[in-house]
Amino acid sequence: GRAAALRARMEERLLAARFRHINQQLYTSSSREAAQLFRDDPEAFQIYHRGFTQQVERWPENPVQRIVRALRRRPSSLVVADFGCGDCKLAKSIKNRVHSFDLVPLSPQVTVCDMAKVPLADETVDVAVFCLALMGTNLQEILEEANRVLKPRGTLMVAEVASRFEDMRAFMSAMAQLGFKSVSKDLSSAFFHLLEFSKTGSPRGRPVPGLRLRPCLYKRR
């Protein structure tokens, strides 16, 4: 009755508060620290993923569906690396060989690792994907890792929350310094931006200040 409903509401609020706290930690720590956080507290990732999924479900479209459609138009022989794959929606939706990387295995297909140190040889991937996954204080290191595993002229696809981009021009300039040339920008959604790059060469090997994205912090409801 009423007591059970009240208890359920309280539990929901506690989970929401915990999600916001974990989310904030992920944006203010490096990928190594995030990996350690979830090793120490595996339940935290379940809470984070559940809260994250609830947020994205409020959007008119999930950006992973856009990436799925784009990849289905290309040869299924292309090898894909999905950085921050979550529940492997991408791997389950396309015929390509997909290396699915994340900090915790929500699915048996996931390879658990730090996104700045994935277990792939140099230049072995045709497409690298970051779908709502550019988190952490070491973004440059993570994108340099994507560059390392991509073949020359390989494709990098980035879908990210629109409000995180404070200076798109500076971000694109930073990406160029990391060896990525802009191929297309889809800024039509109010919720997320979809960017595609082509690998033109190796990163220049120095700090890239324009690579800043605002943390995506969720308000209390």
TrEMBL record:
Keyword Transferase: yes
EC number: 2.1.1.-
EC category: transferase
Highest taxon, organism lineage: Eukaryota
GO biological process assignments: cellular response to glucose starvation; methylation; rDNA heterochromatin formation; regulation of transcription by glucose; rRNA processing
Keywords, alphabetical: Chromatin regulator, Methyltransferase, Nucleus, Repressor, rRNA processing, S-adenosyl-L-methionine, Transcription, Transcription regulation, Transferase
The UniProt record lists the keyword Cytoplasm: no
Gene3D superfamilies: Ribosomal RNA-processing protein 8, N-terminal domain, Vaccinia Virus protein VP39
Cellular component terms per the entry's GO annotation: chromatin silencing complex; nucleolus; rDNA heterochromatin
Gene Ontology MF term list: methyltransferase activity
Protein task: Probable methyltransferase required to silence rDNA.
Oligomer and partners: Component of the eNoSC complex, composed of SIRT1, SUV39H1 and RRP8.
Family: Belongs to the methyltransferase superfamily. RRP8 family.
Protein name per its UniProtKB record: Ribosomal RNA-processing protein 8
Originating species: Eolophus roseicapilla
Gene (UniProt): Rrp8
